[in-house]
User: Which sequence fits this backbone?
């Protein structure tokens, strides 16, 4: 059982699917394909994205940690988009080279700030943390565009440090990125609470360095236990 909120000095947060999301990812892909004379059902695209995330992202990966680079991040997502496009039957109309080029274009679209939105609870949560005197940081597996996205949403100034996998060469669930976060913060693990959405990356991994963690569940298709709003952290505190 984790401690009372007031016993922590700092809150570290995940970014994607914790603070922000692309709510219309399926619409973006549908329109992208329509502009290239391919019409696909938006609901089917959404189902395939969910399927792809389960197969590629929501997996239990606790060993063989590889160095993270901008190129490896791009390769991961390009492969995920390629999976979705093949499931949509795009390979029946496009060459493999055309699909490859398309996936790289999609990567650039999906890591740009334009389509991201903050979850409704994010700004009130950050403001309450700041008012209560907490330090706030980020530990995220993300493209090098993360800081630009946070700045475009008006929340970058809340965080110090912002640790991005593609910038530091480490990615969750490698516990080394949490060791780095401790070093950057100049704190011990007992002083920090971490919040993220991924069971392995955001619960198992920080626990390996002694950091308490809370899982946030943002989507109906996610299973397991966790809070449904960041603001529940304060509600739990009130009920202790």
Assistant:
């Amino acid at each position: 059982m984790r401690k009372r909120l007031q016993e922590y000095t700092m809150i570290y947060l995940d970014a994607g699917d914790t603070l922000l999301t692309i709510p219309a990812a399926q619409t973006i892909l549908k329109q992208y394909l329509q502009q290239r004379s391919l019409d696909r059902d938006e609901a089917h695209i959404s189902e395939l994205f969910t399927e792809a995330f389960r197969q590629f992202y929501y997996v239990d990966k606790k060993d063989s940690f590889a160095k993270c680079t901008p190129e490896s991040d791009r390769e991961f997502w390009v492969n995920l988009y390629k999976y979705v496009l093949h499931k949509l039957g795009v390979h029946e109309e496009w060459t493999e080279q055309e699909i490859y080029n398309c996936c790289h274009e999609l990567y650039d679209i999906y890591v740009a700030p334009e389509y991201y939105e903050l979850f409704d609870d994010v700004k009130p949560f950050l403001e309450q943390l700041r008012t209560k005197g907490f330090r706030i940081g980020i530990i995220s597996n993300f493209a090098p565009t993360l800081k630009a996205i946070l700045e475009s949403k008006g929340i970058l100034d809340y965080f110090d440090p912002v640790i991005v996998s593609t910038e530091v060469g480490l990615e969750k669930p490698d516990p080394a990125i949490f060791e780095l976060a401790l070093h950057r913060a100049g704190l011990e693990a007992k002083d920090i609470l971490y919040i993220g959405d991924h069971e392995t990356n955001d619960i198992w991994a920080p626990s390996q360095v002694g950091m308490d963690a809370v899982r946030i569940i943002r989507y109906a298709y996610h299973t397991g236990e966790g809070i449904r709003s960041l603001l529940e952290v304060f509600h739990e505190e009130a009920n202790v």
Observations:
- DSSP finds ten helices and seven strands in the chain.
- The CA atoms of residues 168 and 202 lie 17 Å apart.
- The two ends are 12 Å apart (CA to CA).
